Amino acid sequence: MATLEAIKYNGGQLEILDQLLLPESCTFIPICNVQDAWTAIREMKVRGAPAIAIVGCLSLAVELRKSPVLETKEQLHCFIKEKLDYLVTSRPTAVNMQLAAESCLKLSTLLSGDTLVGVTEASEAIVKHLEAMLANDIADNLAIGEHGSTDIRKKSIGKEKLRIMTHCNTGSLATAGYGTALGVIRSLHKANVLDQVYCTETRPYNQGSRLTAFELVYEKIPATLICDNMAAAAMKQLKIDAVIVGADRVAANGDTANKIGTYQLAVLAKSHNVLFYVAAPFSSIDFQIATGEWIPIEERPHSEMTHTGSTRTAAAGINCWNPGFDVTPAELITGGIVTEKGVFKPDQLVPLHK
Ligand SMILES: CSC[C@@H](O)[C@@H](O)C(=O)COP(=O)(O)O
User: Fold this and answer.
1) Which stretch is the leader sequence (predicted)?
2) Fewer C-beta within 10 Å: the chain N or C terminus?
């Protein structure tokens, strides 16, 4: 069965699956411009680091295809810079949108300096660059899946079937398709070596129980849901072989920001001698940040903790702390960082930076 398709793009028409309505309903909504994308990202109708960047960039392609009246390449450059700068403000922790914006502006600067290229050709080249992100992301995820699954199997010799724990949602709903950590799990399943995947509920926003569980059921991958506070017991009693999670931003030293609760899973994995992997495309690595202490962490509304839907479940008047992400120190990433280029120890990343 084909994996879920949450971002649909065809000839300048963009639609996304509204993830706020999952798992009750699969409803696609149109994204007609950059403002629509910014709002959808901010409201988490689309979420997950790669998907945020892809939807942001495709929304700019949609606007450029509608041919705004831009007479010079300087005007074109200012137009896309303004839009990209705005998209980068949608959510702070994932770095993918920022790096995608930098790469697009680099291309625009190159085209601006090329006297043989006119404004229409420059705009078309930028649209082509933005539109290529969908296919590139799927290809990267397939490679991540293969590298990760091969590495886990290599390090689990003697075990016929593997039990994997994962956190948050890193699948087709968080990427252009297939997924990163969930892509590795799909590849293990395809290779017939997956006994069971244990997905955490991922409080307070429940990306695990709402989204990952939805994808796993949809694709008939053997899976069991656990609450976040069952992770230690599951590692001990259910004999988990590896934990594999995604990333919103990896610092140059390998420290990794990912969904809140990732750090505690890494600590638990270490004390239970369970391999801990991060799976992410190179576009999640921020080489401008030396360590994880510089990664901005999004603070989320307290209502996510105090309410379930519109029903208050916490005592009125209680103070809350609701960071959306935490940083896992590189030394806890014992399995490695799985990318489309291979699996690396955290201290091997810097030499790979061009
Ligand atoms: C391939 S998605 C990787 C991460 O973006 C994912 O693990 C995560 O933390 C998503 O957080 P979210 O707040 O749902 O956008």
Assistant:
1) none
2) C
